[in-house]
Design a protein that fits this description.
- By secondary structure, the chain is mostly helical.
- It has helices at residues 11-15, 19-32, 34-48, 50-66, 76-97, 99-111, 113-118, 126-145, 149-160, 171-175, 180-196, 206-221, 225-230, 240-252, 256-265, 291-303, 307-321, 324-332, 338-351, 356-365, 369-378, 388-398, 403-419, 426-443, 453-463, 471-475.
């Protein structure tokens, strides 16, 4: 029986349906999907002129403002698309002809953030992302519309002192180019007055911290490094993360000696020699708690002519936690041929690194197939099968050139799943077992002292014979009934 042919839903094929047929189909779809109907209304309004589009957007904003129903995770994707359509229509269509009108509408749109986020499940952050994008749009529109600087300063002040959901976090940097000297001075005066009005207490003052950050954003816009530093509480300046922010600004201002002095005063305490992955679920690829401080400090050393000290710091960071970034910059600073020898030394160090998972992640990130496979073969007893988010991609990465190493990684995941009776992962374990079976023909007699695939299967059947939820999936890896 000849296979059935399918017709691709492509532009050229849809054109053949004709205008009237397509219009009829769209009307049928729009009748059941309000979001599609709104999109069609916007497109039709665009044909009639920007005034009609603006009226539609104003109406839509008012509707969103008055809505009270809760939006759960199932309805969220459609709601996000509709919300972003409103934003882009204002920022792109209306702004082309009337940036001032678009600017006013975007402010009204931003005011929706709090009421909208109060009635939506935004665990994915997609709704908040629409409003953060709108905040950036405000900056672009302000530069085009050129509103009164004092009025703009008042609007920005009112927004940043509320900012309950972080929607206005980047408002001052986004709109700063539109302030001019008068607007910046007006905003600074309002923020300074608000800061002075805060009562000091032993408890954390979130509102005061918000105003302080806004003043720091303003200082950054004015490139006033000393003004920024003055706003940092003295007790916080010895924290590595805070010192890194100050140091970077001083470096950008050409004050490298001041930067190094600030950074050295806030040098992190010596970290103990331990794995950053002790519990098995820590953030692989995490480059240490003080990586930002370290980056700025190394740049400061370079800027003050202490290149050798910078190199020692890079190598020490690599040795301590297998930092890919530090090793790359270390090798880049070496003369030709010296970098080859240094890379060989680095690979040897990683092969013997105290934590297997960190070493495997390093080789995968570098990338170094041969060394990764060698690590697995020589230290397979240290594989943590629970780290599926590391082992699965590395196994796929190695299977073409080092099938035995890939097999050992998958076996570790299978055994961790079965030993822990992690039933939610049984389907994945069955898939890994099928992948091991497909690689067995490539390994053939090269298992050495390790179990063959058949021996591994036999041991699993004896040890986990009662895992009734697992074995049917092995018999049929797709999970269907036999």
């Amino acid at each position: 029986m000849a296979p059935k042919k399918t017709v691709a839903v492509a532009t050229e094929n849809l054109v053949r349906l004709g205008v009237e047929r397509l219009a009829s189909i769209l009307m049928d779809i729009a009748a059941d999907q309000p979001a599609v109907k709104r999109r069609l209304r916007v497109e039709l309004a665009g044909e009639a002129g920007f005034e009609i589009v603006a009226a539609e957007m104003s109406k839509r904003i008012s509707t969103l403002r008055s809505a009270r129903s809760f939006i759960d995770w199932q309805k969220r994707p459609d709601f996000v698309r509709d919300l972003d359509l409103t934003r882009t229509t204002i920022a792109e269509k209306i702004a082309q002809t009337r940036p001032d009108l678009a600017f006013d509408l975007m402010w009204r749109f931003m005011v929706l953030a709090a009421p909208v986020l109060n009635r939506v499940d935004d665990s994915s952050g997609t709704v908040g992302a629409v409003f953060r994008a709108a905040c950036e749009d405000l900056g672009v529109l302000a530069a085009k519309a050129r509103p009164d600087p004092n009025a703009l300063a008042e609007q920005v002040f009112s927004a940043v002192v509320k900012n309950d959901y972080g929607e206005f976090d980047n408002l001052i940097p986004a709109t700063f180019p539109a302030f001019g000297k008068a607007g910046a001075a007006a905003l600074k005066a309002r923020l300074t007055a608000a800061m002075s009005a805060r009562t000091t207490s032993d408890r954390y003052d979130s509102r005061g911290a918000t105003v302080r950050r806004a003043l720091q954003d303003l200082a950054d816009g004015e490139r006033d490094v000393d003004g920024y530093i003055a706003l940092v509480p003295v007790e916080d300046r010895n924290r590595p993360a805070v010192a890194a922010g100050i140091g970077r600004r001083l470096l950008d201002a050409g004050r490298a000696d001041d930067a190094v002095a600030i950074l050295e005063a806030a040098a992190p305490k010596q970290r103990t020699q331990r794995s950053d992955l002790d519990d098995g679920f820590e953030r692989l690829g995490w480059d240490g708690p003080d990586a930002d401080w370290e980056s700025v400090y190394i740049d400061g050393l370079e800027a003050t002519g202490r290149a050798e000290h910078a190199q020692r710091s890079r190598w020490a960071a690599f040795e301590e936690r297998l930092s890919v970034e530090r090793l790359r910059s270390y090798l880049k600073a070496l003369p030709d041929f010296d970098d080859v020898l240094a890379e060989e030394r680095a690979m040897a160090h990683a092969l013997g690194f105290r934590d297997f998972s960190s070493a495997l992640h390093f080789f995968h990130s570098w990338p170094a197939h041969r060394e990764a496979a060698r690590l697995v073969l020589e230290r397979h007893g240290e594989i943590n099968g629970n780290l599926y988010y590391l082992l699965d991609p590395v196994a796929r990465w190695l299977e073409g050139t080092h099938p035995l190493a890939a097999t050992l990684l998958r076996r570790a995941m299978i055994e961790d799943t079965l030993d822990g009776a992690k039933s939610k992962r049984y389907r994945h374990a069955a898939r890994h077992l099928a992948e091991c079976r497909s690689l067995a023909s490539l390994i053939r007699d090269d298992y050495g002292q390790l179990e063959t695939h058949d021996a591994f299967i036999a041991r699993l059947r004896i040890r986990h014979s009662r895992k009734s939820g697992f074995w049917p999936l092995v018999a049929d890896p797709a999970g269907g009934k036999r």
